[in-house]
Amino acid sequence: MSLEFVSANHAAAMAAALAGRANERARGFGGGVYPITPQTECIEWLCQQEFARGEIVRVESEHSAMAVCMGMALAGARTFTASSSNGLAYMTENVFAAALYRLPIVMMAVNRTLGPPWNIWVDHGDTLLLRDSGWVQFYCEDNQEVFDSILLAYRLAEDRRVLLPVLVCQDAFVLSHTMMQTDVPDLETVRRFLPDLDLPHRLGDRPVTVGGLDFPHETEAHRRQHAEAMARVPEVYRECQDRFAAVFGRRPADAVECYRMDDAEVAFLSMATTASTVRAVVDAARGRGVKLGAVRLRMFRPFPEAALRSALAGCRRLGILDRDISLGLGGVLWAEARACAPAGCVVQNYMVGLGGGDVRPRDVDGMLQDLLARDAAGEPRLVEVGS
Amino acid sequence: MDSLVEFRLHGRGGQGGVTCAKILAAAYAAQGKSVQTFGDYAGERSGAPVRAYTRISDAPITNRNKVYEPHHLVVLDHHLLGPDVFAGLRPGGTVLLNTPEPMAAYRGTYESFTLATVDATRIARAHKIGSRAVVIVNTTIAGAFARLHGIPLDLLRQTYKKLGFLGNFAAAEEAYAAVQIRPASQPAGADAAVAAAGLPAVQPLEEHVVGPAPRLRTGNWGTQRPHYVENLAPCNAWCPAGNDVIGFVQSLATGHPGTAAEILGRSTPLAAVCGRVCPAPCMEGCNRREYDGAVQIRALERFVADATPVAARAAPVLPSARRIAIVGGGPAGLSAAYEVAKAGHRVTVFEGERALGGVLRTGIPTYRLPRDVLDREIEGVLALGVELRSGSFLRRDDVARLAREYDAVILATGLQDLRGLEVPGAGLAGVEQGIRFLHRVNLAGPVRLTGHVVVLGGGNTAIDCARSALRAGATRVTVAYRRTRAEMPAIREEVEEAEQEGVVLVEQRQPVACHGAGRVQEVELALVEMGPPDGTGRRRPIVTDRRERIVCDHVLLALGQSADLSLLPEGWTVQDGRVHRAGEALPVFAAGDLATGDGTVTHAIGSGRRAAGLALRALGLDVAVFERPERARSVPATDIRFDHFAPRPPAHGAVLDPWQRRAGFAEVNAGLPDAAEAHRCFSCGHCTRCDTCLVYCPEGIIRREAPGYEVDYSYCKGCGICVEECPRRAMEMSGS
Q: d(Cα B74, Cα B386) in Å, to the nearest integer?
């Protein structure tokens, strides 16, 4: 274990490389990569690495990057790629394919606003575009969580009860380019957490066709299997958390993370780094006697509905902070989570920090005042924070 | 949370501010603090105001917002000072400022906080930190930061080592020592200057703006500016004659052969000669050599001069023309005569041979230099009114007489002392000085030589002897040289052509004896090993006791020549090209090999020019004296952007087949068919108006403006891309 002073982009790359090396005695490691701001640092670092078994392939597009991952994964390798924003949009066809092939690929996505007009700062619209793709999705809050989530994602993805690809998301710049000390374990410790990958349907000596034609009754069966695998994720995730804590001595956050929610009457639900700011506001509001709590959704897919219902059970007012907008509806998180609030709870949607504006405590405070003044929910609100 | 300290760094895109913040954070991380550092991204275009942030704390840091109320500021460009920079600065804070101004310049201002100043830009520039275009100050100012905030220098060194910046640490150390620190002397808030200071605020790029885009005078972002410059081209620096090589080659490239001839004529009357026999130091210096072969400058010079005589046609008529005597009509004397006559003075050339030309006529064979070419260029000199007295060699008392009769005398008698072979048997018949042999070949009509001829030496005389011997009927010719081929002073192409004709070169052989009964029958050679380099950089030959004998019929000596000073009257000595008698400077000057011993036509021309200038100036005339430029000042190949040039091998003119060459003394090389070779010239240090700067400027603020370009400095951010991309180093950055 060593304390490295690195950006979260580099932390993700370091975790992927460790996971890859942990599989060197099996079928190795690889992936296709294509650069895009703000993910570039991550794959640059990875491309400078030498792997005893396998390699990182530099390709001409995101679509091919995922295609390389699928090929390598089918051959039994542990695979990794990273992308962002419009790159993810271009990759989308193969993102779906990776899940439908049931390949345990891990992808790091740096959340960035979709353009045009071009904007390189954080917005969750790019990965939320992929919410129905059949991938597990995590949204991280700090550098260490990015590192830990990559390792954890492999164990979860490769579990035979799951066998699904996992997307680990982090906020553009606020996380990707911020340098902080990060605990980086040694390879032997990582090996204790990540056993060799043994993909049951990996290509071997016997020629097979992968992904041929499904008739309706076969698709019905495949979709049910896929849905059941997704449904098993929360349980397997908890086992992974336990194992992670046993090996590395720290426990990754739950799918739904509560802060001062025990007696909270008012709460904010948010994802990713916004949650850090919300917690600072919670502390300040508690000092003023407001019974405010905070819930962070770490796992967006599968959607942890039961855990969220229980977290919000005592809530009378709920503000849902989206760093995204589903045009014609409102925030995506709000649309999904509002049904988890208890009956009679005022659920108000705030779409804030779109395009990467710095969401400061005073902005959250403004939304708190708005929420406290409401008798009933209104239309989803777009909150502008400026730069 | 009380231990949290926040820094905000203000800089400009390209100064490395984000990395600077990272260095500071790493230094605190090394002290066991929790640290966090990040920058503002995407707005960091060159010159644009950017910010970076560093937090340090004893407790884990959870704040993900930018720093709005910093404890301390670091400002990388003093032009940024203004309300934007000071916004939110907490009482008791410090400001570290990169500024060329001394601390005294800030008297009476910014006194409510601790101010530290350092000229990090100057230090970084002195340490050559940055790209080839722009200076980068981040690693330098971090040294000043360490001093201000009490970070031990040794710990900073460890941080640089870990981050891979150790090469920049000396600059950081200098900044550590140089930073000036002035404690706060006013209470917080008392500082009106803080609110009012600086330039008008530049609108932040990310500000939410409704309506037309703001007019952004980005010119005030720049800390450095590009300028068009003319730098010394290596060909010009390397030409011993002082020809404006790049000038004539570029005139050819732009379709002006007449101008090319006129440019050559400014410095030489012998361009058609040099275009054939010059060893072409310009081509050794040519930066294209490092890419795909030097520009064939010698061949281009010949192309120009064969088409248009280069010599000036007219000289001014001066009422008080001086009379100058020139002794020796070789290249140095001709050059001096040309220079003096061109300036309007009267010249008399004294030549011992019947015709002018010196070694060009007596030494260089006609297959390299046809005599009609030589005659034509000599005519060009004489046509300026130069008087010729030829056919009798002067003696000592003649020289003393000339010094009395003429306003000045220039001695250019060349190298008349031939180095002999001081070994047993050197006096045998059949052993002859190569220069004498060439003299016979060139002036005395057909010469017959038979059997095996051994030439001793490795210079141009040796090769001329060898090839002339073949043409005179020798059945075999061997050149024995005591060093290796790489060290031969002869022109490489001449050696190659000689070998094509059948000349055999044996390297590392030193003559130790000639054997024979009355007439040479064998030459005995000792094998030589190459030792360490001597003072001239050439490897010293070490003669071994291993010997071999070569059966031969003739031995031609080409072992070198030296100046014969016996022409100087008693008590006359040469110092720095001027003749002195008993400490008194006489109006007598030495030129060419007599003065320098460099041994090439081009050196002789340059020396003749210089002697002419010195002579006229000694007579009280206001003339420019030619000085050879410093080669080290010329544009190096590393400053040329090779990727802007398509590869294109050098052009060569047709040459006769070896069997045709051996049949007689016809000219071997036909010369270039056209001037296309001139297009290979990089034009080092000289703008060709190629538009690269204009095309690459990200702001689109370079425009064509005769005779070149103009940069709109009101919008230039000093990004340096034009300078970086200029293919030929005709642009440079300087402080704005």
A: 73
